[in-house]
Amino acid sequence: MENTGSANLPVVAVDLGGSKIAVAIVSGDYRVLAREQHPTLAEEGVDSVINRIISSVRRIVTSGNLALAQLYGISLAAAGVIDSQRGIVTLSPNLPGWRDIPLGSIIEERLGIKTRLLNDANAAALGEHHLGAGRGVDNFIYLTIGTGIGGAIIIDGKLYTGACGSAGEIGHMTIEVNGPRCDCGNVGCLEALASGRAIAREAKKRLSSGGRSSLTEAVAGKIEDITAKEIAAAAQQGDVLANDVIKHAATYLGVGMVNLVNIFNPEVIIVGGGVASMGDLLLGPVRQVVRERVFPVSAAVRIVTAELGNDAGLLGAAHFAFKQESD
Questions:
Q1: Do 105 and 158 belong to one domain?
Q2: 174, 186 Cβ separation under 8 angstroms
Q3: At what angle are helices 196-208 and 228-236 packed, to 10 degrees?
Q4: Could you say which DSSP state residue 100 is in?
Q5: Are residues 122 and 216 in the same domain?
Q6: What's 71's domain CATH number?
Q7: Among 263, 258, 255, which Cα is nearest to 160's?
Q8: Is 275 helix (H, G, I), strand (E, B) or coil?
Q9: CA-based, 20 to 30 A from 223: which of 40, 75, 86, 127?
Q10: Number of C-beta neighbours around residue 271 at 10 A
């Protein structure tokens, strides 16, 4: 699927997350011509992250033997609540200090090229809708599970963003009224119960309470170093504690999906992000919870993994830019 944008000029797509900044040049026929990735280092502050984005854009354009004037534009996918119309990062729990930051206009002014901004999960959903697991599906939910949990909603083939652009904050629906504190300030959010960070926290808690697991040896006794990746590897080797931790998170994730299915009646729920690489280890028990709890009329919903991997946000951001001219 090609864009109808200005002479099919390429876009520089940027995926800004809590831990990494991915940058790519994407052609009009959605080929990734060049890419690079750097740590976000969000703890260094807003200005430092913005400078890193600008440097990355300049560097990848130069390495691609292009000039900024040869681009159709820049499209930024950022974690958090995004006002796409005004190009503002309203709030980003995983980017400390990012509140009401006019990221779109800052990048546009400093680089002198049209810049668009959207939520990173929305970008990934657009990518999957047009090029991945959502092709031909008019009603689906996209869920990304990594350090945090994000989401996006496609209704009648169009991205649903709500009254002020914050629709799809699936990770921050309350699942457990008296649950753990979330980075957003609330308690019991799905993100605080089933994200990669939450899975790691649960494993550390069990080990600190005397639980036995091969995880201890895998991290040379440094329990604080355990991540969801090590837990998945241990579970695949039959580690009981690791499997129980994943099933614990899967139960909460399944309950969250039941709520989504009963409210939106989607054809498909597409699951992406780093934690989704666990595959059926995570999604098997999730599907069981959904089957047991969802309204019978909606039980045909399919729960599948995303197809585009780490490129979903970049390709979706590019599509978002290309689409502006054709609308």
A1: no
A2: yes
A3: 70
A4: E
A5: no
A6: 3.30.420.40
A7: 263
A8: helix
A9: 40
A10: 24
d(CA 166, CA 118): 11
Residue type, 215: L
**The total number of structural domains that make up the chain:** 2
Residues 90 and 142 in one domain: no
On whether both 237 and 276 belong to a single domain, the answer is: yes
248 and 121 part of one domain: no
Give the residue numbers spanning the domain of 195.
Answer: 136-306
Residue 33 within any structural domain of the chain: yes
Residue with tokens 């292009």: 66
The residue type at 321:
A
Percentage helix, strand, coil for the chain under 3-state DSSP, each rounded to 5: 45, 20, 30
323 to 70, 118, 130, 143, 191: CA distances (angstroms):
18, 13, 11, 22, 31
Strand partners, 155: 158
Predicted TM-score (pTM) of the model is: 0.90
Same domain, 183 and 290: yes
| Residues 162, 107 within the same domain | no
Contact between 144 and 151 (Cβ < 8 Å): yes
Distance (Å, rounded) from C-alpha 265 to C-alpha 262? Answer: 6
Helices assigned H by DSSP within 64-219 = 103-111, 120-131, 190-194, 196-208, 215-218
Tokens of 138: 């008019």
Task: Specify the DSSP class assigned to residue 202.
Answer: H
Residue 1 domain flag: no
Checking phi first, is residue 142 left (phi over 0); if not, alpha (psi -120 to 50) or beta? beta
Question: What is d(CA 139, CA 161) in angstroms, rounded to the nearest whole number?
Answer: 14
Quickly count: other Cβ atoms within 10 Å of residue 223's Cβ.
Answer: 16
